[in-house]
Design goal:
Strand content: 5-15%
Shape: globular
Largest sheet: 5 strands, parallel
Radius of gyration: 20 Å
Number of strands: 5
């Protein structure tokens, strides 16, 4: 487990709560905006108890903005509040989120996190996995003081092509003639922040770490007849979304007794989105993703609210190391 976490940032021995996808899930179909909207709306209608109050994690990106739009449309009588995280010495996305909250006429609550490492042990104790990227802990901790329903735009990146930085680099490293193993190695190179050059030295002899074992786990995603981009989509969905994000958020929500609402992660939408041709998700020429979601936003005149850059709550780890991490490391080691 530890070797997978320290190389892939997820543990494949866990039981996922989302359906797995296979190469057969891809059909190259043409999406219809209204049909996509209907699927999202129907998933929200399945919520039996209409919540009087909902909080939504609002980062200022496409996914959370779209989720907020559908929440307001599906629950017109519910009070919706936004929660944004502002990490010290990091990119401040709360300002853009404030603009979006103002457009939808909802209250925004900003959680200021000065030392991200201070409560990290508590978050790790909740999820029972050695992950450091547990910002959801702060979102749920704040939300539980306001309501029992917490919404998120999770799934937009994996279902509709949001990791453009990865696609661009991957396509620069491989061709259609590359072997499955070559593609696996290239895919891992597109995760620089998840690994280091001498990563093998992290493991002792008892761990029997082998890169071959890691490669073997990823081979099925690249040893098939899918296009190069669809192979990346397949690997991304069956990776951190399936074995990290979804599981981590659920465990944190459960700890704070929160009910999660994920408009972009219903089983029907997952099935529909995976069948969409990748040309309606990602434009290789201008390196732009989430094309279908952008169309929906434009239809409702919301596209001007969001940034073309990928957003999301994130910590500047270099600044965090300088301000707190180095001192903690020196104290214990």
């Amino acid at each position: 487990m530890i070797s997978s976490v320290l190389t892939l940032r997820y543990d494949l021995t866990q039981e996922p709560i989302l359906p797995k996808i296979t190469p057969r899930s891809f059909h190259n179909s043409i999406p219809i905006v209204t049909q996509t909207e209907d699927i999202i709306s129907k998933s929200l209608k399945k919520i039996k108890t209409k919540p009087k109050k909902i909080t939504i994690a609002l980062s200022g990106g496409i996914d959370s903005t779209l989720a907020l739009h559908f929440l307001q449309r599906s629950f017109p009588d519910s009070k919706i509040d936004a929660i944004s995280i502002k990490f010290s010495d990091s990119v401040d996305e709360s300002k853009l989120a404030a603009k979006i909250a103002g457009h939808f006429d909802i209250d925004q609550h900003i959680v200021h996190v000065d030392n991200y490492l201070e409560e990290l042990p508590k978050a790790i104790g909740i999820v029972k996995m050695p992950f450091w990227d547990l910002h959801w802990y702060y979102v749920a901790k704040k939300a539980q003081t306001m309501t029992k329903h917490l919404a998120t735009g999770d799934g937009g990146d994996e279902l509709f092509g949001g990791y453009v930085f990865r696609y661009k680099k991957f396509l620069s490293l491989v061709t259609h003639r590359s072997s499955p193993l070559q593609k696996v190695k290239a895919y891992l190179q597109c995760h620089e922040r998840d690994s280091v050059v001498d990563q093998k030295e992290l493991f002792g002899k008892k761990s029997t770490f082998s890169w071959k074992k890691i490669h073997y786990k990823l081979l099925p995603y690249f040893d098939n007849s899918l296009s190069l981009i669809d192979q990346v989509f397949l690997a991304d969905y069956n990776g951190k979304l399936l074995y990290n994000f979804s599981l981590v958020n659920k465990r944190i929500n459960d700890n704070f007794k929160m009910t999660g609402i994920t408009p972009l992660l219903s089983k029907d939408l997952i099935s529909y989105a995976m069948g969409i041709s990748n040309k309606y998700k990602y434009n290789k020429r201008n390196n732009l993703g989430k094309l279908l979601l952008r169309k929906i936003l434009a239809k409702h005149e919301l596209d001007s609210l969001v940034s073309n850059q990928k957003l999301g709550f994130s910590v500047n780890t270099i600044n965090l190391w300088s301000s707190y991490g180095k001192k903690i490391f020196q104290y214990y080691f």
